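SAMPLE LOG
Freezer: B-3
Tube label: C17
Construct: single chain, 324 aa
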Amino acid sequence: MVKQSINLAFVGSGNWARKYHFPALAHLRTTLPSDFDIELHLHGIYSLEPVIAGTVAEQYGFGQVYPNFHALIDDEDIDAVAVAVAPTALTNVIEHLIVRQVPLFSEKPPGISAAEAHRLANLVTVPNVLAFNRRFAPLNNRFREIVRAMDQIYFVDAHFLRYARLEKGFFVETAIHWINYLEYVFGEIQQVSVEMVHNPDHPSASNRIASLTFLNGLPGRLTVFPCSGSQVERVAVHSSAKSVYLDGPLWESAGQIVIDTGASQETTVAERQEALPEIIRLGIVGEYKEFLTRACGGQPTRSTFQNGVNTMRVAEAIEQGRSL
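STRUCTURE (predicted):
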């Protein structure tokens, strides 16, 4: 069987790209999973930091460092483009790239506002993956399978907790991950009401508890505390017969799923989860594999600019403390 050959160009060389994106691409080039029938060529890279881009190109085998952004856009040998830039720069980058009409991978969030997310969703008509990596983490997908097999779920209780995170834009740039994952598991969030929670040690901290209603009428709650004693991404699902709890994988933590059925409790970590490299546990390899095998093959993907619009709408409303 002849493998599909893909020439990938990359825009960006920041810390996140160096920590996760480039190692994930290297993993797919060298490890060659049995279900990855792609001959991947790292064709070229462009960055506002050409020295760093040169180091990345040498380390990971990019064929060239483009002297400017237009050189990348004009390269007719490109089959697909991946973008990892600051949210404030994303819309401008996509506006220029889209003329190429090749499959597009982009780091989240989709811009800096719901209005930008909507604009990008209309602009990007090519097959695409928006890198909400929680949708691609193996343990998170196992949890989704368990939940979808449950009968008569009546409540969802989720927590997204961090320690000493006071930066502006925390909800639309960071907490948005868990909002997007909840929509992946339970469907679009249609209604939101927000309670502000005062933090006496950090009065400026945007602590929020949001009551949610999903598309099918399922009620839920999302607690987002940027300044707490914990760092966790957790969701609990309840029916009359069963409660299931997910602590999602986060950095070095493998995460776990706990299933309670009355007097019985089962704790499970997905098979070999703890032994998996971080870039696989967290879904980074998975999102690139889906991009290269599905988006580059013209097939639908599970995370796109289009289904990211509502996520951004909800994240923005929670950040601003207003109802939907």
